[in-house]
């Protein structure tokens, strides 16, 4: 069967990955109603289409941080990325360069931040989880600086590790320990198992050196053991002052917090609920973006993620007040389903859907779509 949509990629990823890996990627917090709502809230929005507009020449490019990106979206940071597909992070970075979009490496990624910067010198952003140990945080920030990253994305919506029922049921943190169920999963998903065993079990390459330093042995528990629950606005300000280039805060949902971040000197905010992975009853970012836009004013860059599964969703996010979007699982389903070639396909699907959406509703570029905001909520 040909792949036509991101949801085809998800279905294919589900077949290809062992269930504990698919659940790690696909799952969310609590009942997962919040995660589902991230996408269904997009689907409740309708366009007001304008006809008889010459849409033959369309331009999807947009400027963010003085850089002209070919498309108004980039890829979100994903921890343990290469577990879904060996070489996945590199493939995403290279596809992002080819497509002219930004890509973000997670602190919990499986490529070292230095290697990732080499794969995507102009396009790479680095996402930071602030460690409980200042010396580790500072060292990572200094490495990110030396590697030449244009932007530091500081994730602030993990004050503590979340309860993700699917991972708890699968005992995901010790998933790499051999059990009869684990062996069965490997045997029944031979293509994933062969690729993963051949490439070697992925490691947290950026963090490896600190694991030794802190005496932590267990790979899967390491990042959550590092999370700092005491990270606050003062600490964010210190980090802002330490980092000289673009500074982005990821994981805000309240207008007051976005205003605070702007006033503190942050360059942009990512309105996100972490793809519904932290708490069930948070608003979907698309539900709050208009209110946040009104609070921060027209100029301050707002990026939106969580729930985006199509180009229509991206058009709605932009019309509702976002300047730019990030896609998380959409990209991961693609590389899980098709291997490294999936990264390019996911960008193509989303870009083509977005272009056709603009044409269908009578807009030829992102600026005119944003200015007209041709959307309304279905009753
Ligand atoms: C498997 C997985 C791992 C993630 N790891 C990180 C991470 O390490 N750092 C981070 O800031 N966000 C992480 N996120 C959240 C994403 O960056 C992004 O906010 C989210 O995936 C957006 O929602 P979507 O998946 O519906 O597009 C992760 C999400 C998933 C699905």
Can you describe this structure?
- With 379 residues, this protein is α/β, with parallel strands linked by helices.
- It has a single domain (6-377), classed as Aldolase class I (TIM Barrel).
- It is built from 19 helices and twelve strands.
- It has helices spanning 6-16, 19-26, 33-43, 81-84, 88-99, 113-119, 134-146, 165-170, 180-187, 190-199, 208-214, 219-226, 233-242, 255-263, 285-296, 311-320, 329-338, 342-361, 366-372; strands at 45-47, 62-64, 67-69, 73-75, 103-106, 124-128, 151-155, 246-252, 268-271, 302-304, 324-327, 375-377.
- The strands form three sheets. Strands 4-11-10-9-8-7-6-5 form an eight-stranded parallel β-sheet. Strands 1-12 form a two-stranded antiparallel ribbon. A two-stranded antiparallel ribbon has the order 2-3.
- Helix 5 runs parallel beside helix 18 (342-361), helix 16 (311-320) packs across helix 18 (342-361) and helix 16 (311-320) packs across helix 19.
- The two termini are 36 Å apart.
- The mean pLDDT is 95.
- The structure holds flavin mononucleotide.
- Flavin mononucleotide binds next to helix 2 and helix 17.
């Amino acid at each position: 069967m040909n792949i036509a949509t991101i949801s085809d990629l998800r279905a294919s990823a589900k077949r290809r990955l062992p269930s504990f890996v698919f659940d790690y990627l696909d799952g969310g917090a609590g009942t997962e109603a919040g995660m589902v709502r991230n996408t269904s809230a997009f689907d409740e929005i309708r366009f007001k289409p304008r006809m008889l507009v010459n849409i033959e020449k369309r331009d999807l490019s947009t400027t963010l941080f003085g850089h002209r990106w070919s498309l108004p979206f980039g890829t979100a940071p994903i921890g343990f990325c290469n577990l879904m597909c060996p070489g996945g992070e590199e493939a995403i970075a290279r596809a992002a360069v080819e497509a002219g979009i930004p890509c973000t490496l997670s602190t919990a990624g499986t490529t070292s931040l230095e290697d990732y910067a080499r794969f995507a010198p102009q396009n790479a952003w680095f996402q930071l989880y602030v460690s409980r140990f200042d010396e580790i945080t500072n060292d990572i920030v200094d490495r990110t600086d030396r590697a030449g990253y244009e932007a530091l994305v500081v994730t602030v919506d993990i004050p503590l590790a979340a309860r993700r029922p699917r991972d708890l049921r699968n005992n995901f943190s010790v998933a790499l320990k051999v059990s009869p169920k684990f062996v069965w999963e490997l045997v029944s998903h031979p293509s994933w198992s062969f690729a993963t065993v051949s490439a070697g079990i992925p490691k947290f390459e950026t963090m490896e050196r600190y694991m030794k330093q802190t005496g932590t042995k267990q790979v899967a528990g390491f990042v959550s053991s590092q999370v700092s629950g005491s990270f606050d606005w003062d600490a964010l300000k210190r980090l802002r002052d330490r980092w000289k280039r673009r500074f982005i805060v990821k994981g805000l949902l309240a207008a007051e917090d976005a205003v605070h971040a702007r006033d503190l000197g942050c360059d942009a905010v990512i309105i996100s609920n972490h793809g519904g992975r932290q708490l069930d009853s948070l608003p979907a970012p698309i539900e709050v973006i208009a209110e946040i836009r009104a609070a921060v004013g027209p100029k301050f860059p707002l990026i939106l993620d969580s729930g985006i599964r199509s180009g229509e969703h991206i058009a709605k996010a932009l019309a509702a007040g976002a300047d730019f979007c990030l896609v998380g699982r959409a990209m991961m389903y693609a590389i899980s389903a098709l291997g490294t070639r999936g990264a390019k396909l996911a960008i193509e699907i989303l870009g083509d859907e977005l272009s056709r959406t603009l044409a269908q509703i009578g807009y030829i570029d992102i600026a005119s779509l944003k200015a007209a905001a041709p959307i309304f909520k279905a009753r």
